[in-house]
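Weekly structure sync, notes
Attendees: PL (lead), two postdocs, one rotation student
Agenda item 3: pending single-chain targets
PL asked that the sequence for the first pending target be pasted directly into the notes so everyone works from the same version. It is reproduced below exactly as submitted, 559 residues in total.
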Amino acid sequence: MLESVRGRRWLIREALPADVGSSRAPRLITHLLALRGIRSNTDARQFLHGQAGDDPIRIPGMEPAVARMRAAIAAGERIAVYGDYDVDGVTATAILSEGLQALGGDVVTHIPNRFTDGYGLTVAGLRAVRDQGARLVITVDCGINANHEVDFANEIGLSVVILDHHEPPPVLPDAAAIVDPKMGGGPPEYDGLASCGLAFTTLRALYDAAGTSLEAERYLDLAALGTVADMVPLVGENRRLVRDGLKSLARGRRPGIRALAAAASVDLATLDAAGIGYRLAPRLNAAGRLENASLALELLTTHDEARAVELAATLTDLNTRRQRLTEEGLAIARELAARECRDSPLIMVGHEQIAQGIVGLVAGKLAEEFYRPAAIYERGNEVCRGSVRSIREVDVVRCLSQGDTIMERWGGHSQAGGFSVRTDRVGELKAVLGDWVRRELAGQEPRPVFEADVETPLSSLGVAELQWLPRFEPCGQENPTPMFVSRRVPVMRSWTVGAEGRHLRLKLRDGPITWDAVGFNLGHAQPRPGARVDLLYSVVPDRRRNGLELHVQDFAPTD
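Predicted structure, written out during the meeting:
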């Protein structure tokens, strides 16, 4: 292959042998299943038709957590559900608070403000919920690293139950109960839950213990929103939650979700996981990034149609502002990176005009653009707060751990994390992290890649194969949309569309079928009619024509 128009390598994944012969699936489909770890008929049935996971009470810590919640409800204790300001934290807060209230619980909620409270469980936040009369605090999407804060809660008479999905520290907080699937030892299907999925699963256990039936339909829409937005693996229980949650979203029971979808020009009846990730989640996240995530929580839980429309308009305006600030911050960060990080394998820059709420977005764009780990921070007089986004070769948690004694706080996942550091120690942190990344990448030549599932002629995608492809939805992390490579495909016609000809439209023919294709942000590489190209693409619904089209990720001329 000549150089692709995006300058990326193409890697075609290798599958282990599979035995799903009696599934009646075409050979191409069994190959795609095997690439997703599905190598038996039992696995195939679970993947295609998934059922609810094992008894959630078997998750370590769940039994004492449920017992403490039931005791609080029975005693009439006020319960504070303490969340986080991203979509996962907000949806987890909504799920758990509504579920506890339906059992008769006296519940208040607390979502920290990014700008005045900082991240996670804080002393100020605990004081606030105590002043509201809470006796039990249930954290969702935070708390697993809050040893000091839990000690403070105990001192002021608050009992704490932690529901979190982040990596646990060596020494756990002294809480009444801790439920974190990443501590291990529980049913494996729950290991990758986001906090909203963990909140839903906790309700299952709580309602079972109370001898009553959980009306799952009330919460699955929220679980789908948070699971997709948090970019956890869409396999196992997560995939089931999103699949069933999309059906719940299509029914549009919540006024706030209906209003948000209308503001985003989204049809809930045809919404998929990508639509959540690109259209709905950014609007929900905009509240916590720029103002207060309690706006998103109110939107999701309100029963007032007029208020829902008002809140959806507010979030849409905030999202527009977020987009503008991101572009401005990106321009500043690019200039700083060119000046300060030219010879470093790590981009680490900050500025007082790069707002704290968008540092993660700027970091993600720079990491993709330069294919280097990027740590972007808002520079404050005393403290800098930032986010890290990485490349496949560099683990963020391992990277940040090198500066554990330098930073005030930090945490994250393998490809994303956050940190705060005193301004007078930023240079020290930058040196330590940069040296570690340099050693980690020694002898490597990192280069961005596109992964494809299989190389096959375009003509091999017949009716039988195409009928099976929708069954791989919902797609996302660790269950990617099936990707194909086809060689020397003839281009019948090509033209550009969108502002300034930014996107590419193609008509392709290989065998008996003529395919419409779209390549977003590929208008600059328009091939001439009659040319042949190697394609890397997926097959997606074409809702304009009620059919299918190719979504071209990359291509390379072959002439």
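Discussion points:
- The chain has 17 helices and 18 strands.
- The chain has a mean pLDDT of 92.
Action: rotation student to compare against the earlier draft before next sync.
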